[in-house]
Amino acid sequence: MTVTMSRKRFAATLAHRLAVLAFIVVALFPLFWLLKVSVTPTKLLYSEGVRMWPSETTWAHYAFVIENSDFPLFFRNSLIVSLSTALIVTLVAAGAGYAMSRFAFRGKMWLVGLLLVTQMFPLVMLIAPIFKILSSIGLTNSLSGLVLVYTAFNVPFAVFLMQSFFDSIPKDLEEAAMIDGATRFMAFRQIIVPLTLPGMAATLGFVFTAAWSELLFALMLISKTDASTFPVGLLGFVSKFGVDFGQMMAAGVLALIPAVLFFLLIQRFLVKGLTAGAVKG
Amino acid sequence: MAAIDIRAVDKSFQKLKVLHSVDLSIDKGEFIVLVGPSGCGKSTLLRMIAGLEEVTGGEIVIGGKRVNDLPPKERNLAMVFQSYALYPHMTVAGNMSYSLRLRKIAKEKIATAVAGAADILGLAPLVERRPRQLSGGQRQRVAMGRAIVREPQAFLWDEPLSNLDARLREQMRAEIKKLHRRLGATSIYVTHDQIEAMTLADRIVAMEAGTIQQIGSPEDLYERPANRFVAGFIGSPAMNFLDAQAAPANAGHARLVTEDGLTFEAIPGLELPSSRQLTIGIRPEHVLLGEAAGEGAKEATVDLVEPTGMGAIVHFRFADISHQAYHLGRASWRAGDSVKVALPTERLHLFDATDGRRLN
Ligand SMILES: Nc1ncnc2c1ncn2[C@@H]1O[C@H](COP(=O)(O)OP(=O)(O)OP(=O)(O)O)[C@@H](O)[C@H]1O
Ligand SMILES: [Mg+2]
């Protein structure tokens, strides 16, 4: 009896682990391929056929990308645009999400509806008008123009995200703080914000990655190299005469680094369960 | 510490009117308990006093000052929430000292106040823990501690014990009573628990559907409920009610006949027009059963016997209506037995059948 039980449990655990493993392999394989190609010498790229690992590796692509291309500049631009967008969006979304979560105000339904509607348009439809607007106020070919557009497109979703985080924090907590002698703003800053840090970190991370990898608007709104972001730069490796895969992949790996670092930085806030113990339990 | 005056207070949520012209004056140091069925507006009233809910009409005066438009922080009240509402990211000491830190009180004074409160509540060994590392009862104490470190004008309690198990409730109830004796602070306490209401209150306020039905000492409400609602709400098991009609008087005293033919002779000090419809109420603990019923007792059928340890609740049936009696000591009856029942005249409560007003 117990033997069959534990055997069943063992089989279940095994199946579970295998499923997780399969998922990880599928998810990470492209990344592995990216890495592999980035260290493969160009001469071996086509001659060795499909192999899991080249017979010889090289850092030459990396060296070229860092020293001889505009990539450091693209990186800097991407970093500026993504960080600014993430910060601005998170601040705006925290304020708006809190209001949506806690206050009843006139036109709330309309506002929610409007935010939803903005999420329904395919972005392609909006490129022409946005280009027109930005060029008339001189914001094409500028990083601030990109930040503005990215912020506008990310705010609605971020507001909903933040609202759901605020919704999960009991209203009693702020009320208790206000009775203890805090103003509503102090209660927000000292009680609610510390408890919503996971939510803010998630929003920050989400918006950062979205802005980091955005291509469409970056391509349409920026035509000069000195304001290009890295996804646009990546396309530079596709020339009329062919694609330099080694360098492109090396640039891709480098581009991953800031995103990974950023997530490492915020991951300690991403842990759940900060509100445990607030209420009866 | 302060007196609180609630004058003709109304409250509406959009179109829904939940409080109707509530009047209540609370003396300095008095312990007031609000009771009433779910949704009758107890929490709303408490939250309006605290400043968490706007006042739609009327006035709230604390310590002689109209507070209608003051934010909670300027009312200087302490409130204990049913959910405890502890700050999860602060330690026990941090939770208790938050209000003092906001008032920029000197560090040493804060430490003394927190240590004092922790001592009173038996929290001293736990002050460095966080709420999630505490049991339900301990959390409840922290919530109380947060209130008592201050010197508020009054304490507001919204069902503070309802999440605790029976044993802990009893303990905390006694703690609260001691605390009140020690601090003598004005308190308003909302509860569903009859025993909490009876044991803690200087005066009980019984509410129904946003209106106050009766204000009085626990004895008043128990012995002389002002109307049928209060009679039925206060007391557990609940009062029995029988529909009756006044019969032609007998030597100046009212005579009552119930639907199922029970007659009550000579209700002292009551004169009623003949054929007036009314409701007779009698508490289960005043119903006499078996031997005790004596002469002229009625026969009834036992439906169910629920032993409570100290005694037993005996459900019995007259004609087709079920009633309850509380029998002290061992009950030897079984379901289906027939039992002699007497309802002593001097224990009866009489209410008008239409408006429920008390008549005797
Ligand atoms: N924010 C609100 N918006 C609309 N209606 C509300 C709001 N708060 C309370 N109510 C309504 O007001 C009435 C009184 O609610 P309240 O919470 O004061 O009841 P209560 O007596 O405390 O009940 P309970 O014993 O269940 O806690 C209820 O009908 C409730 O639905
Ligand atoms: Mg309530």
From TrEMBL, chain B:
Say yes or no: keyword NAD present. Answer: no
Question: What superkingdom heads the lineage?
Answer: Bacteria
What CDD domains does its record include? ABC_MalK_N
* Span of domain ABC transporter: 4-234
Determine if Nucleotide-binding is one of this entry's keywords: yes
List the Gene Ontology MF annotations in alphabetical order. Answer: ATP binding
Q: Which InterPro entries match?
A: AAA+_ATPase (IPR003593), ABC_transporter-like_ATP-bd (IPR003439), ABC_transporter-like_CS (IPR017871), ABC_transpr_MalK-like (IPR015855), ABC_transpr_MalK/UgpC-like (IPR047641), Mo/tungstate-bd_C_term_dom (IPR008995), NA-bd_OB-fold (IPR012340), OB_MalK-like (IPR040582)
| SMART domains the UniProt entry points to | AAA
Sorted keywords for this record are: ATP-binding, Nucleotide-binding, Transport
> What family classification does the UniProt entry report for this protein?
Belongs to the ABC transporter superfamily.
Q: What is this protein identified as?
A: Sn-glycerol-3-phosphate ABC transporter ATP-binding protein UgpC
Instruction: State the organism of origin.
Output: Jiella mangrovi
